[in-house]
Amino acid sequence: MSVVHQLSRGWLLDHLSFINKINYQVHQHHKPCCSKNEPTTSVHLDSLHMDSMSSFGSSAKFIASESTTKPDNDDGGNCEVFIQKYVFRSELFEIHKPYITSAIHKEWQQSNEKEDLMNGIKKEISISTLGKKRKRCVFNQGELDAMEYHEKIRGLILDGSSQIIQQGLTSGFLHPLSEKQDKCSEPTTLLLDTCNLSELCEMAKHLPPLNEMELLTLQLMENDMSVSEQDLFSRIVENNSSFTKVITLMGQKYLVPPKSSFLLSDISCMYPLLNYRKTYDVIVIDPPWQNKSVKRSNRYSYLSLLQIKQIPIPKLAAPNCLVITWVTNRQKHLRFVKEELYPSWSVEMVAEWHWLKITNSGEFVFPLDSPHKKPYEGLILGRVQEKTALPLRNVVPIPDHKLLVSVPCTLHSHKPPLAEVLKDYIKPDGEYLELFARNLQPGWTSWGNEVLKFQHVDYFIALESRS
């Protein structure tokens, strides 16, 4: 369960608990009888013993535990099967202190004010010299729009979050910062991205195209199997079993949870998803928005607003589909989604929600009034409008300005799960799709050029399985 507390203003979520409720159990077939057809390509379903050390350290080493014996179909011999369980690393959700404390924020603000004042004096002197005195404006229009928006939602976030956070402190889910945590709050060393998935998607464009009639699905079966790189990039990969599968790609191992499916590709190669012949009742979109920090850091490739507009939502959406788009706090992007993007997809906006990021002790990760980094992000919810669609029955209208409050993962852009908070607003047993995903979920189809990123085995710890 990802919902710890549900109040009238919103939810307190436990992202880590949600991940670890997934059945991350891998069936490992012991050699020699189950390794007759050992895969030889660089992409394969892994059923062999993993004894290499994790880049996080020895705690992620493979531990074979619970075992059973079953006959081998080929020669009647016995084959030993190990069931290996994995859990996500809890230290990646340990945020004991705000990224910027209020004292540092005030000092930084005073420094900026002094700098603005000096710049203003210099500017006025320069203008006076030219005989063109003008009234100085410190903020540009984008900044003024952002300040106006912040003032509009500030009270909602402050009042709503105080109730939710207090409930978390009372129940013990959130806890005051201890002296030990205050002194030893070092950031976790993260995995280096040794397998750049987005670059692999770029390389895949140069592979020979498959016959479109063959572009069906690739199912990860119970037994050992091998697939080509071409198959992985040009087909929907499905794990329909009740256990997790491990695939190896360019020497890196990734966990594929049960009842999940994915397509690893970029926006130029979405045709396998369109040929999947499915439409979806919920579509969650986390676009790679363009901004200055992304340009500077080169952290990921971004899309222009025109490219985002060209995503074929009308072809993927079922009647009355609920479309949810994660949006940065930049007003240009918020207006674009509300006024251009959704109308172009025949989606009517129904609500705006806010994800508030807090520490394990319930503090905002950034000061609420910080002029640059805010502790919240937005979600714009809308429904596909079709004249022929029948209205949804037994579905509650979606309220506006709900809060999702959670401790964020230290991995960049690992968003909290939405399935449980949406259950009252969608029909049961629907089809769910996440676009620009970086992880997989049971019951969901996920697409993106980094769709396996947070499924890397080094983000998990192998535990001893018990019967």
Describe it for me?
The protein has helices at residues 15-21, 102-130, 141-171, 179-183, 197-204, 229-234, 271-274, 292-297, 305-309, 313-316, 331-344, 419-422; strands spanning 3-7, 10-13, 25-29, 43-45, 66-71, 78-88, 217-219, 236-239, 245-249, 252-256, 260-264, 280-285, 317-327, 347-357, 376-384, 403-406, 432-435, 444-448, 460-463. With 467 residues, the protein is an alpha/beta fold. Helix content is 26%, strand content 24%. Strand 7 (217-219), helix 6 and strand 8 form a beta-alpha-beta unit. Strands 1-2-16-14-15-13-12-17-18-11-8-7 form a 12-stranded mixed sheet. Strands 3, 5, 6 and 19 form a 4-stranded antiparallel sheet that branches. The radius of gyration is 25 Å and the shape is globular.
List the SSEs and their pairings.
Blueprint: E1 3-7, E2 10-13, H1 15-21, E3 25-29, E4 43-45, E5 66-71, E6 78-88, H2 102-130, H3 141-171, H4 179-183, H5 197-204, E7 217-219, H6 229-234, E8 236-239, E9 245-249, E10 252-256, E11 260-264, H7 271-274, E12 280-285, H8 292-297, H9 305-309, H10 313-316, E13 317-327, H11 331-344, E14 347-357, E15 376-384, E16 403-406, H12 419-422, E17 432-435, E18 444-448, E19 460-463
Parallel strand pairs: 2-16, 7-8, 11-18, 12-13, 12-17, 14-16, 17-18
Antiparallel strand pairs: 1-2, 3-6, 4-9, 5-6, 6-19, 8-11, 9-10, 13-15, 14-15
